[in-house]
Amino acid sequence: MRYDLILFDNDGVLVDSEPISNRHLAAYLTELGHPTTYDESIRDYMGSAMHRVHDIVRERTGERLPVDFDDVFHARVFAAFKEELRPVAGVEGVLEKLTADGVPYCVASSGSHERIRVGHRVTGLDRWFDDDRIFSSQDVGRGKPAPDLFLYAAERMGVTPERCLVVEDSPLGVQAARAAGMDVYGFTAMTPPEKLADATQLFCGMGELADLLV
Questions:
Q1: Strand pairing partners for 107?
Q2: Residue 90: exposed, middle, or buried by beta-carbon count in 10 A (0-12, 13-18, 19+)?
Q3: 107 phi/psi in degrees, rounded to 5
Q4: How confident is the model over 132-152, as a mean pLDDT?
Q5: Model-level pTM greater than 0.85?
Q6: Do residues 107 and 135 lie in contact, with contact meaning Cβ atoms separated by under 8 Å?
């Protein structure tokens, strides 16, 4: 193993939440008078913290989203999670391998702590991630593409950036990992490979990731 710590993005990497989240985000923004398609939501917001949604809408329209936007959006998404959410196929095998090999790992997500925990409880991934392995953009203030979250997680886990590997599926996440001075493997299940071209390595399935981590 070339790395002393593996940092996983959450949405789209551990839990298959991006289709659910972006479907509801596009619908809610459209409902509020900001017409947004599913593909546009994926393009503009996938992998980002909620503040980016507010920032982009304000930049484009000059309008602010409602003060309860985040709460309403998350209530809708969490309800959908309970019915639809699944772990990303093969990810538990990767976690089993890392555990067996004694390689530390954690999650570093743009999502809130509540969102991470809800998703993990629904999918059963909570058995792999105790509180000491969960890091959110809430912990640092600035989400991806800023490197702050990855640097904070590495510091808390006691590993220097150059000994870390990030597993990401969004261009913003790849950009953040690079800015943190970390290697990053880009997961192309939902994202066109060319959009993750700055990654150290690309892979399209979790079985392939397990082989890359040998």
A1: 8, 134
A2: middle
A3: -115, 135
A4: 94
A5: yes
A6: yes
